[in-house]
Amino acid sequence: YGKNTIKFLRLHREGKKHFVKEVEVCAHLRLTSPQEYLDGNNSLVIPTDTIKNIVLVLAKKNGIPSLEQFAIDICNHFMTTFCQVAYVKAYVQEVPWQRLHEDGVPHIHSFICVPDGIRFCEAEQCRNGPLIVFAGIKDLKLMKTTQSGFEGFYKNEHTTLPERHDRILCGELFCKWSYGECKDFDFNCIWKKIRECILEAFAGPPDCGEYSPSYQKTVNCIQMLVLSRVSQVQVIEVILNNTFYNVVDMKNLGLTNDKEVLVPVEAPYGSCACTLGRKKFFEA
C-alpha cells in the first residue's frame, strides 16, 4: 500500500539565482505482517498521509540533488525508521522545467516547461537486501523525415502494406534502464549521456543521418549504443510506439503531392519493444 501522486515544487535559492525541481512521487510499502488485511489490525500501518508528509519533509531537509538520490533517500528513511517495513519502492518523475534564456543569457529566476521527454526513476529495497535503482525517460517524441524504410517483410494473402524505402519514422519513446545494485553514481550526468545516445542512435550523423530498415532495428541501435558507452547500465528496455503518416492524394485537386502534405494515422498504431542486457547481469 502507499501514497500516489505526491506533487510538489522544490525551490532552491543561491543568492538571487533560483533553481526549481517539480516532481511527482509514488511511495509504496510492504509490511512484515499482513494483519491489517487479514485481521483488521492497523497497529503496524503507517498512514498514507504520514507517507506523504515524510516525502515532503525529506524534500525540505535534503533537497533533490537528483531524482535517483531522492528516491534512495525515501527508501533509506523508511527502512531505517520503521522496523515493520519489509519492502519499500519509490517512483519519482520530473516536470521538465528548463531555465529561460533571453538573448542567450540565462534568467536568474524564470523557467519554461519544455516537453522534450519526462525523466523518471525508481528505487526499491527489501529488508536485508540490496538497494536497486532504475531510471528512464518517457513521452519522448521523435521524428525523422527520411532515411527510413520497411522492405522485405513476410507476406501472405492478408498483406496489403506496400514496401517503402523512404518514409517518415516517428514515434513516442519509453526507455528504462537498471543500474543493478546502487553505487555512488553521478545520476544526473549518466541520464544526460543516455539521452544523448538515444538521440544520436535515432537520428544518425547530423549532416546525413543513418538509414533505419525498421523500428525494431532503431530500438536495437539505441540499446547497443547505450550499453557500449555507459558502463553503469546493466539492462535497458526500450518501447517505441509508432506514429504512421499517409501521403494525402491531391490528384482530384489538380495537385501533385510529393510527400509534402501528410496526415497521421491515429489508430491503430504499431509498437516495438525490446529488453537488452549484459550477459554477466543475467548470469548473476
Automatic annotation (TrEMBL):
It comes from Panurus biarmicus. It catalyses: urate + O2 + H2O = 5-hydroxyisourate + H2O2. Belongs to the uricase family. Its main location: other. GO terms for biological process: purine nucleobase catabolic process; urate catabolic process. Pathway: Purine metabolism; urate degradation; (S)-allantoin from urate: step 1/3. This is Uricase. One of its GO terms (cellular component) is peroxisome.
